[in-house]
Amino acid sequence: MLTSLIEKAHSDFISKYTKAVLDGSSPDHQTLQDCMQRVNAIYFPLLRVLQLNLVSLTPPQILAVNILHRQFVEEIAFGSAVFNKQSPVPRVTVRIEDRGHSVVVGSTVIYFPLK
């Protein structure tokens, strides 16, 4: 279920974002909003999984969640979420990247204790 959600979000995002780049325009606000909703649709279920397991998930080509020793970086197949240690509330910034183009589409609070 989670894998298919990720694949669908990846496919939808790549098609919309790549089209905007090829058209010579940057993605519009609505495209970014759509993208963020898809990221959230994946990310929040993922956080619930992490709350229970706090382990890497497989297969890595679809989803790699790495909780590094005292450095908390989660990577998703089509983007990355980086833990912000300076934030008063644990927070990740979701960055979507494709073909060398990169855009920050938002941040979300994480609720589980990082160990």
Which tags fit this structure?
single chain; 115 residues; alpha+beta; five-stranded antiparallel beta sheet; 5 strands; 40% helix; globular; disordered C terminus
Description:
The protein is globular, with a radius of gyration of 14 Å. The longest helix is centred in the middle third of the chain and has 25 residues. The protein has 115 residues and is of the alpha+beta class. β4 and β5 form a beta hairpin. The C terminus is likely disordered. The chain has one domain. The chain is 40% helix and 30% strand. Strands 1-2-3-4-5 form a five-stranded antiparallel beta sheet, with helices on one face.
List the helices and strands and how they pair.
Blueprint: H1 2-22, H2 29-53, E1 63-68, E2 71-76, E3 79-83, E4 91-98, E5 101-109
Antiparallel strand pairs: 1-2, 2-3, 3-4, 4-5
